[in-house]
Fold this protein.
Amino acid sequence: MVKLYPCKEFRFPIVAECINPEVFRGKTSKEIEMLKVWEGNKQRKLSELFKIEMADGDAENIVIQGDLSKVRKIGAGMKSGEITIHGNVGLHLGEEMQDGKITVYGDVGGWVGSMMEGGTIEIHGNASDYLGAPYRGCSEGMHGGKIIVHGNVGNEAGAHMRKGIIKIYGNAGQFAGLRMRDGTIYIQKDAEARIGACMKGGKIVVGGFLESVLPTFTIEGVREKVKIEEGETAAGPFYLFLGDIVEHGEGKLYILKDKNPHLRVYEKFL
Amino acid sequence: MELLVKNGFVYDPINGVDGERMDIAIKDRKIVEKVNEHKARKIDASGMIVMPGGVDIHCHIAGSEVNAGRLLRPEDHFRDFERKTSITRSGVGYSIPSTFTTGYRYARMGYTTIMNPSMPPLEAKHTHEELSDTPIVDKASYPLLGDWWFVLEYLKDDKIEECARHVAWMISSTRGYAIKIVNPGGLEAWGFGHNVNSLDDQVPCFGITPREIIRGLCKVNRLLNLPHTIHVHTNNLGKPGNYQTTIKTMQCVEDLADGKPAIHITHCQFSAFKGDSWATLESGAEEIANYVNVHSHVTMDMGQVAFTDTTTMTADGPFQYTLYELSGNKWVNHDVETETSAGIVPFRYRRKSYVHAMQWSIGLELALLIKDPWKIFLTTDHPNGGPFTAYPKIIAWLMSRKARNATLKQINSRARSRSLLPSIDRELNFYEIAIMTRAGQAKALGLKNKGHLGVGADADIAIYNVNPEETDPSKKYKRVRKAFKRAAYTIKGGKIVAKDGEILRHMEGDTMWLDVRVSEPIKISEDMKRRFRDYWTVEYENYPVGEDYLAISNPIAVRANV
């Protein structure tokens, strides 16, 4: 296990792609200390910013304790191993990760799990905007893996998603599942407007209040329950909407009936 | 400063030098007969190829269209970036690199002269600002004149001489180099949501046909004695069955040629489709090659497709709309007031797509079936078929059957069975590559001091680390590809700017433009000014581009016959 503690309160953004079991593997503590990170426009050694403790020879397991809200790209592209963070984390956590596990006991910044292909990210706190969404302009979103958020998330969670699952046990901001193609987004509590805008496929489940459904969705029926993932179903009944018609989409939008009495007007179209 | 390039295998097709071991002497900015061997700095080029600096006749590298593409595609840049060094500035790629990176990347490949082919006259200032920021290479721009209202009006009334005077004024005041025609008539029609489908369709509101526009501007080009021919992007580009339009376009100026080149068909691959629909698409390369092989008035460039993620951008608005409908991708479309239109769509060419694989095949078929390398040049229509950084790959495909077969194995199987490539044995040699990548292009552009290594030529030289006596390009194509990717030395204006792919010196390149001198310049009438006021967002007084806009201005004087 490798333990990292920030040496100071960071003032400038830090890009630390090297905090990654993939990079740490097979390196001695001396070599890990010499790894390069960017602090603002200056390149530094990892040991200048973090106190590093190597408990045993195993670098597969990284534990970080402290405020990392200025630190970006932790675990980017990781293929195995585990990172546990006690504290808040900055942008691009686990970007393009392929496998392994990241657990955060705190809040995270934007673009967590951006373009990820596999593995698991679990956040015991809130997440900011663009959860699992790709880089700006890019249409290749999440290709697999799992993101679990126990708190709330910001806007555009799961944008351009192609595969995988995002579970949000709190509320979600606007435009959840924007332009998604496939995969599943489960929001246990409330969601803000414009959910599933321009979606072409996939599934979004809302277990709380949703103010309005976009006019480019049509009601398909009422379902008693809906499958979230293997071995997990959410009990309904749910209204099922299909859309987004603007994009000739066939995405499925499930909204819990009990919490949304104002959507009863749609029933007359059934 | 004196420089001596020693013992290289020199390929200089304009002067007929085919791989002879020679020394090239350079004094200041020019190639000279000899220099003082003791004083001069020497470059040991033994075992290497020495060629004139590369010339690119058609690459979209600057202007509002390219810049809109940069804005449209942040995802194109974030994986491909270059940090600043003590010499170079930082920048991004990939398919639409930033201006500085464009200059550096061309220089790394040994290219020293590049032509930006589509400049809406209204956006000329923007284009020149970006060209001035493109370092090292010399460059020039072609203003889009095929759908320019005044031109259409003059040609409709058959006033060729007045039209010529107007075009002379336009080229000089926008600091342009040649007449660019894109989908003649179609762009004007696009302003009304239509297109033209053949050379004899009427252009709405003007009562003129594409044929008349092409012929008219071809005559204008001749009257003005411009160094390059008209530079034509054909009608129906990117539509199945368009090879017939392309042949008709070449035929329609046949009688105006009198033995000299009269028309340049650009990115011909996109205009060489046979078949009725995308499903039945076939190659029309053979028919076009048969025509070009027996006619001397045509030059063309490939517009080769490289399988990669790229950004398509042309002034052909209706074609770009079709492409958007095909791909469903994000897009930009623009009508440039009374002048032209433009469109941008990101696009990925996939090996396993039948149409894309056919396009790849058609481009190479054209280059290999046209026997005379002086008639067809290597381009990707950067960035439409792929970024210019794909040139080394294309050189390898042209030089090696083995390289073509390796790619053929990977492409769509239906495309493989319909491709003509397996039946073509031709493999180009270094001499022919030198023609297709520099000498031929310089000759077609009428650049007297570029593209050759004779005494008096500009000292723009590329040295590639591959030994033609030891390396058989047909077998060791990877070696050749690597050599052309990073020139051992790039010399620009007598100075070493790049060595082994590293930029050693930041310098500004010239912007070439034509100072067309007519005996009786066009009178800027009150009526014309009024129309500028009525129809343009820019008044006449603010329209011409001042010479101070160009970082280094290099006017080329042309005496016209009117």
Observations:
- Residues 152-270 of chain A form one domain.
- Chain A is about 5% helix and 35% strand.
- The mean pLDDT of chain A is 93.
- The first helix of chain A runs from residue 21 to 24.
